[in-house]
Amino acid sequence: MSIHTLPSPASVRHPASFDHGLGAVESASERIAAWPDRWLAVTRLAIGFIFLWAFLDKTLGLGYSTASADAWIRGGSPTRGFLSHVTVGPLASTFQSWAGNTLVDVVFMLGLLGVGAAFVAGLALRPAALAGTVMLAFMWVAEWPPARNGSAGPTGSTNPFVDYHVIYALALIVVAALSTGARWGLGAWWARLPVVRDHGFLR
């Protein structure tokens, strides 16, 4: 008959140690689960910065797409350069007639500022996404990717349907639909406001 020795107290794991290990697993799982939200937040900030930068460049003439002499604050028109060169598509003449129009300039610049600020701050993402999508749709029609040639020669279009305007619009819609404003933004505070709680579209 053999005698079995009992394990020493030191070799027995305390239940708390199991809890600690489980907590570590849960913590790792939570960190992994958080990555999609983080990448969506990065996407939100990036696309917001695209709109904000366009506003700042056209307003101040930072020398990227807008020369200093053509800055909005110096009397330049944010839309004249682009719209006056529209030569293809069903609305070409309409866009040309809008070029340099003060009301069109103001609406366009307010759209850039509003969409950019909303996405960087993480609030009012749904109305901002709608406004941004409408703006991008107009830009898509103005460039008219289906056309391979215009009055000035080849248009440079690489795809007749999906171009960067469509990708930006999809990014706006996805980011807004998934309510990503709470991470690295003011979305949680915005969602608690009574008017926003009562009108989900404002989120």
Care to describe what's here?
The protein is mostly helical. It has 8 helices and 2 strands, in the order H-H-H-H-H-E-E-H-H-H. It has one domain. Helices cover 60% and strands 2% of the residues. Helix 4 (102-121) crosses helix 5 (125-143). The longest helix has 46 residues, at 15-60. The chain is globular.
Quick take:
Strands 1-2 form a two-stranded antiparallel ribbon. It contains eight helices and two strands, in the order αααααββααα.
Question: What key attributes describe this structure?
Answer:
mainly alpha, 60% helix, globular, 203 residues
The portion of residues assigned to helices is 55-70%
Q: Give the number of DSSP strands.
A: 2
Low-confidence stretches: 8-19
User: Which of globular, elongated, flat, extended, rod-shaped describes the shape?
Assistant: globular
Q: Compute the average pLDDT.
A: 89
Could you give a short account of the major beta sheet? 2 strands, antiparallel
Computed CA radius of gyration, to the nearest angstrom = 26 Å
Secondary structure: elements and pairs:
Elements: H1 15-60, H2 80-83, H3 92-98, H4 102-121, H5 125-143, E1 149-150, E2 153-154, H6 164-177, H7 187-192, H8 194-198
Antiparallel strand pairs: 1-2
Helix pairs in contact: 1-4, 1-6, 4-5, 5-6
